[in-house]
Specification:
Elements: H1 7-19, H2 22-25, H3 29-37, E1 49-57, E2 62-69, E3 74-80, H4 87-97, H5 106-116, H6 126-146, H7 150-153, E4 161-167, H8 175-189, E5 193-197, H9 216-233, E6 238-242, H10 249-259, E7 266-268, H11 276-284, E8 290-292, H12 300-307, E9 313-314, H13 324-336, H14 349-361, E10 368-371, H15 372-375, H16 378-382, E11 384-385, E12 396-398, E13 408-409, H17 411-415
Parallel strand pairs: 4-5, 4-10, 5-6, 6-7, 7-8, 8-9
Antiparallel strand pairs: 1-2, 2-3, 4-12, 11-13
Helix pairs in contact: 1-3, 4-6, 5-6, 8-9, 9-10, 10-11, 13-14
Length: about 425
């Protein structure tokens, strides 16, 4: 008849026999208890990816993915913006480069995904955005498997909480209303920085719907709006202004000069991302700091802008620029040019916390975006699960020490917002 013994009884009994009595076994009791608590699953080295599932929500603006393994450990993540119609791209990349592989080799798998897509769009756009979600989910999975938060896997942390700026719902409104909302957000949530949009496609003062030049009445409206915001929040709250890349170079110059009296934290994307040289020329002729990068992809996409001094601040979107490891590489490259990094972030709290691990792991972090109208929305509160508060009283994200990212997804809640006629977590 076979004899079954637990690991704890084996250690305790074996140690007692070897050392000559029960009295000598007592000091090993803590070790026996520790071994007993060790998971009975196979070792991390035997982890294998068995399935990748995902779904699109918010009219295909957000792709959520979940990577499953043979040890019932999963990793999850989110990609944004460049993911319209991306469900089958996700499945293709997963089947070609992830299924059956060990998730522990995150950098290797990311490089295989990128190289495997060189003729499929792996330079920018949808392919890289989907790859970003998969790469981030790998970090989450590995952290859970090893019992470590992602920032530890990235080399440790420089800070315990992540400063955020409030991208307020008050953009493109009358000046007095923008000022009121800015003051309300600062006083209610403790934010030390706010951001407003000044481009407005519906502005009747535009020259015409297709012209990228700013009219003088438009410029007056922008100036009045930001003057009201500065008056409302006072001199010690940072203000960011976003143009969404909707102006030509001459107009970018005019807007940057018009913003000088308000001591901005930055003017964001005054011209399209395709023209880093225009960023550099505008930057040279204004005291207003210039920010760009949410539409540059991978580390390669930031090399030229940094070389020519295009920006005072770069803002990679870690949910579409290549993932968390790539975000750290972008940040470290910027650090060699003495340029701070302020990631763009228009994702759920899962994306916010994913970005926070990178923000904690690099020395040149400045601030992270926070969409106030996202995180107070019912959907965004339902689709993620986590412990503790979203924000501290002084407008920071508290870095989580839970294994992996520290935020998970609620598939049942996500299903309520799934895009019609698109496969969902199948």
């Amino acid at each position: 008849m076979a004899i079954t013994r637990s690991r704890r009884s084996f250690l305790a009994g074996g140690a007692a026999g070897a050392l000559g009595g029960a009295a000598l076994a007592t000091p090993l009791a803590p070790l026996a208890r520790a071994v007993e608590k060790t998971p009975l699953s196979s070792s991390p080295s035997e982890l294998r990816i068995t399935a990748v599932r995902g779904g699109l929500v918010r009219g295909q603006h957000s792709l959520f993915v979940k990577i499953h393994t043979n040890q019932d450990i999963h990793g999850c993540a989110e990609a944004v913006d460049g993911v319209y119609g991306a469900y089958y791209v996700m499945k293709h990349i997963a089947e070609r480069h992830l299924i059956g592989k060990s998730p522990l080799d995150v950098n290797r798998l990311q490089e295989e995904m990128r190289r495997g897509g060189l003729f499929k769009g792996a330079q920018a756009g949808m392919y890289v955005a989907v790859m970003s979600a998969l790469e981030t989910a790998l970090w989450d999975l590995v952290g859970k498997a090893l019992g470590l938060p992602v920032y530890r896997l990235l080399g440790g942390k420089f800070r315990d909480k992540i400063r955020v700026y409030c991208d307020t719902a008050g953009s493109r409104l009358p000046p007095e209303e923008m000022g009121r909302r800015a003051k309300d957000d600062v006083e209610k949530y403790g934010f030390t920085a706010v951001k407003f949009d000044v481009d407005d496609a519906s502005d009747p003062r535009k020259l015409d719907p297709y012209n990228w030049s700013v009219s003088l009445p438009e410029l007056e409206r922008m100036t009045a709006q930001i003057a009201a915001v500065r008056a409302a929040v006072g001199p010690h709250v940072d203000i960011c202004v976003d143009c969404h890349g909707r102006f030509d170079e001459q107009s970018g110059h005019k807007i940057a000069k018009a913003m000088e009296p308000f001591d901005l934290m930055w003017l964001e994307e005054p011209v399209p991302a395709e023209f880093p040289e225009a960023y550099a020329r505008i930057r040279q002729e204004t005291t207003t700091p210039i920010c760009g990068g949410e539409n540059w992809y991978l580390t390669y996409g930031f090399r030229r802008p940094l070389e020519i001094g295009a920006c005072d601040v770069i803002m990679p979107d870690l949910q579409k620029a290549g993932g968390l490891g790539e975000g750290q590489r972008i940040s470290n490259l910027a650090n060699t040019y003495n340029v701070p990094v302020a990631p763009h972030m228009v994702a759920s709290y899962l994306g916010a916390m994913s970005s926070s691990h990178v923000c904690a792991s690099v020395p040149n972090f400045l601030i992270l975006e926070w969409q106030i109208y996202f995180h107070t929305d019912k959907m965004y509160q339902e689709i993620v699960t986590f412990d503790g508060p979203m924000l501290t009283a002084d407008g920071h994200i508290p870095l989580r020490d839970a294994p992996g990212i520290g935020v998970d997804i609620n598939e049942d809640a996500l299903r309520r917002y799934a895009v019609k006629d698109v496969p969902f977590f199948e």
